[in-house]
């Protein structure tokens, strides 16, 4: 019995040592605590963690080890009541250092009757975890903040976009209002040549509703019969049609009776890209009407003026011809002057009529395929006497071979040559030379006529206005009262209507040379020319 | 026998001057002061040539020509227009109605009118 008891004690002591040894080496900080929460023992790991020696803590109350006593008080209660392990976080007071975050776990020890015998308390350093957690939290916070910031930024962007969008809407509205209320009709075609916008004025001009044609391609518009005059022009244009030769994309079309529209076709370009074509319809009916009225007025006025002028002309001519009896010298002189004055008036009226016809646009009446010599030869012949009478000489230079054919309205080209010869004659001084030259320029295939005089020339500062309406140079107004100031204006219009060019060289005091040229045309070229009229 | 010329022209002085000029060289000239009178004169005696004005009271030159076209005998009479105007459309119409020539009064002398007449029907 005694022996058994000793044996049991030995066993118990062995076990105790075993446990002690084990706990010493256990990396987990560990204390043994009695039911009164007094520390009975601590292992090496605990000493390492808390910096306290074994002797400094044994016998102390457990809660002296920790910072937040209230929580520890609760923890203690929980341990004594619960059978399972109790865990919570706490702050371990480390000797001479700051408290560290720890996780503490305790498991109550009970005897077979369930009496509370104390407990084991493990303390594990969670500062790393805490630190990690803190950092994580910080990261999370940062991220959250970032997210919040981005969200805010996003909201701002959205708000800004919304504002911009609203602004754009307002601008769009404004633009649309301008387009809808624009005084001209506007048709906007997109890149695929389909109608994108048609404004109210265009609807009115074209007698059509926007719903009917919005989105329709230009080819589909053919179905709408009354649009054909407009479509003819659109198809011919460089922008919308297959044409492209037509450099001047402005046209007039009588869309309804008495209503003429001027059609302008312009590409809509942003940066370098063409995004559509704008067709504008400008009502020029009023201008047309005024133009026609003016033209008619001039025609009638000229017609009315011609009757008395004819009477004077015929009477004086017959007087001079002796048809009405012989005149004495003085009478003849006076009647001659009357005749000359009358002729000036006749010429002036002819010029006015020509200008009014130029402005009406119906000017080239009888285009023909001719050799220019057919026109120039008779004119030169008819001028020879007058040139001689004025004490001038004329020299004609032309190639031996007849020049190639050009298109000319003979009457009109005659008028030009007469104008130029009249000027050369009028503004030359006695003894002067007039050189009349015809050449064929192979390079650009044109026939050129030039008339050079050795006359007074044109002052440099006035040369620019030379082809303008009612232009008369200051130096010639003084020397010759005759001249309407319309001759060169008419000539320029005639030549340009023939696809020709007219220009001059001049030096005041030395003389002037006037040139014009006409493109050489064959039968085919002639037909094309006529078609365009 | 002298060739007969009918002048249809409302402007008296011009008609007188032409009459004088043409009579001097031996033509037999009669004058009508408007289209209606002119047509009557044609019916009285068919002239060898008509000098015809365009703008006239009662009946203008174009209507005179249209009337003449309706009658086989009258439609062959050569017509020379003497007018103050010379618009392309007028020239076209006159040509279609059978006018032989067109003179703008201010651009021609009576002598030149005479020359045109001679060219058409001889002396």
Overview of the structural elements:
The complex is a heterodimer of chains A (533) and B (123). Chain A is 48% helix and 23% strand. In chain A, α10 (329-360) crosses α14 (487-497) and α11 runs parallel beside α12. With 533 residues, chain A is of the alpha+beta class. Chain A has helices at 2-25, 44-50, 54-57, 69-81, 127-181, 200-206, 210-213, 228-236, 285-321, 329-360, 372-389, 410-426, 474-479, 487-497, 523-532; strands spanning 29-33, 39-42, 86-92, 100-110, 116-125, 185-190, 195-198, 250-256, 259-270, 273-283, 367-370, 393-397, 406-409, 433-441, 446-453, 501-507, 511-519. With 123 residues, chain B is an alpha/beta fold. Chain B has a single domain (4-118), classed as Rossmann fold. Chain B has helices at 12-24, 35-44, 61-70, 88-96, 110-121; strands at 4-8, 28-32, 49-52, 79-83, 99-104. In chain B, α1 (12-24) packs across α5 and α2 (35-44) runs parallel beside α3. The A-B interface holds A 299, 302-304, 306-307, 309-311, 313-315, 317-318, 321, 323-324, 346, 349-350, 362, 365-366 and B 11, 13-14, 17-18, 20-21, 24, 55, 84-85, 87-88, 91, 104-107, 109-111.
What's the structural blueprint in terms of helices and strands?
The complex is a heterodimer of chains A (533) and B (123).
Chain A: H1 2-25, E1 29-33, E2 39-42, H2 44-50, H3 54-57, H4 69-81, E3 86-92, E4 100-110, E5 116-125, H5 127-181, E6 185-190, E7 195-198, H6 200-206, H7 210-213, H8 228-236, E8 250-256, E9 259-270, E10 273-283, H9 285-321, H10 329-360, E11 367-370, H11 372-389, E12 393-397, E13 406-409, H12 410-426, E14 433-441, E15 446-453, H13 474-479, H14 487-497, E16 501-507, E17 511-519, H15 523-532
Parallel strand pairs in A: 12-14
Antiparallel strand pairs in A: 1-2, 1-5, 3-4, 4-5, 6-7, 6-10, 8-9, 9-10, 11-13, 14-15, 15-17, 16-17
Chain B: E1 4-8, H1 12-24, E2 28-32, H2 35-44, E3 49-52, H3 61-70, E4 79-83, H4 88-96, E5 99-104, H5 110-121
Parallel strand pairs in B: 1-2, 1-3, 3-4, 4-5
Helix pairs in contact in B: 1-5, 2-3
């Amino acid at each position: 019995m005694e022996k058994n008891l000793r044996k049991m004690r030995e066993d118990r002591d062995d076990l105790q040592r075993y446990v002690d040894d084990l706990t010493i080496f256990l990396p987990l900080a560990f204390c043994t605590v009695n039911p009164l929460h007094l520390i009975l023992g601590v292992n090496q790991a605990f000493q390492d963690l808390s910096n306290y020696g074994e002797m400094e803590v044994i016998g102390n109350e457990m809660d002296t080890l920790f910072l937040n006593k209230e929580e520890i008080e609760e923890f203690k209660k929980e341990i004594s009541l619960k059978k399972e392990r109790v865990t919570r976080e706490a702050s371990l007071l480390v000797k001479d250092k700051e408290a560290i975050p720890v996780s503490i776990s305790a498991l109550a020890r009970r005897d077979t009757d369930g009496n509370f015998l104390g407990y084991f308390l493990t303390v594990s350093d969670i500062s790393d975890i805490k630190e990690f957690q803190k950092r994580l939290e910080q990261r999370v916070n940062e991220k959250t903040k970032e997210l919040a910031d981005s969200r805010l930024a996003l909201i701002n962007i959205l708000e800004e976009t919304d504002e911009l969008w609203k602004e754009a809407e307002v601008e769009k509205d404004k633009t649309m209002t301008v387009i809808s209320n624009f005084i001209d009709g506007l048709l906007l075609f997109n890149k695929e040549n389909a109608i994108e916008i048609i404004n109210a004025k265009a609807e009115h001009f074209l007698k059509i509703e926007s719903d009917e044609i919005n989105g329709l391609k230009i080819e589909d518009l053919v179905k709408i019969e009354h649009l054909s005059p407009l479509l003819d022009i659109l198809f011919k244009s460089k922008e919308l049609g297959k044409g492209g030769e037509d450099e001047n994309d402005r046209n007039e079309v009588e869309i309804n009776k008495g209503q003429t529209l001027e059609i302008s076709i312009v590409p809509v370009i942003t940066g370098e890209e063409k995004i559509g074509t704008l067709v504008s319809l400008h009502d020029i009916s009023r201008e047309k009407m005024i133009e026609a009225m003016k033209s008619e007025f001039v025609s009638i006025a000229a017609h009315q003026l011609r009757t008395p002028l004819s009477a004077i002309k015929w009477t004086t001519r017959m007087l001079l011809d002796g048809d009405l009896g012989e005149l004495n010298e003085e009478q003849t002189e006076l009647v001659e002057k009357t005749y000359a004055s009358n002729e000036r008036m006749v010429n002036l009226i002819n010029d006015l009529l020509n200008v009014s016809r130029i402005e009406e646009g119906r000017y080239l009446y009888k285009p023909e395929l001719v050799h220019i010599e057919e026109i120039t030869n008779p004119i030169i012949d008819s001028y020879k006497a007058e040139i001689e009478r004025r004490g001038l000489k004329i020299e004609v230079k032309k190639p031996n071979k007849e020049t190639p054919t050009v298109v000319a309205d003979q009457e009109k080209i005659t008028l030009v040559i007469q104008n130029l010869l009249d000027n050369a004659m009028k503004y030359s001084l006695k003894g002067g030379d007039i050189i009349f030259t015809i050449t064929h320029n192979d390079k650009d295939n044109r026939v050129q006529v030039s008339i050079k005089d050795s006359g007074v020339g044109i002052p440099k500062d006035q040369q620019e206005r030379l082809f303008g309406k009612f232009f008369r140079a200051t130096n010639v107004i003084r020397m010759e009262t005759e001249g309407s100031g319309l001759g060169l204006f008419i000539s320029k219009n005639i030549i340009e209507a023939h696809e020709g060019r007219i220009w001059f060289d001049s030096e005041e005091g030395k003389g002037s040379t006037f040139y014009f040229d006409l493109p050489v045309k064959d039968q085919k070229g002639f037909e094309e020319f006529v078609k365009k009229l | 026998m002298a060739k007969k010329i009918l002048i249809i022209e409302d402007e008296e002085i011009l008609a007188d001057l032409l009459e004088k000029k043409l009579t001097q060289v031996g033509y037999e000239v009669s004058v009508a002061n408007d289209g209606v009178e002119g047509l009557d004169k044609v019916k009285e005696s068919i002239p060898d040539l008509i000098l015809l004005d365009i703008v006239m009271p009662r009946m203008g030159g174009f209507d005179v020509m249209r009337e003449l076209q309706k009658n086989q005998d009258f439609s062959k009479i050569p017509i020379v227009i003497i007018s103050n105007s010379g618009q392309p459309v007028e020239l076209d119409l006159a040509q279609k109605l059978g006018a032989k020539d067109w003179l703008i009064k201010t651009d021609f002398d009576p002598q030149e009118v005479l020359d045109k007449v001679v060219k058409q029907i001889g002396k």
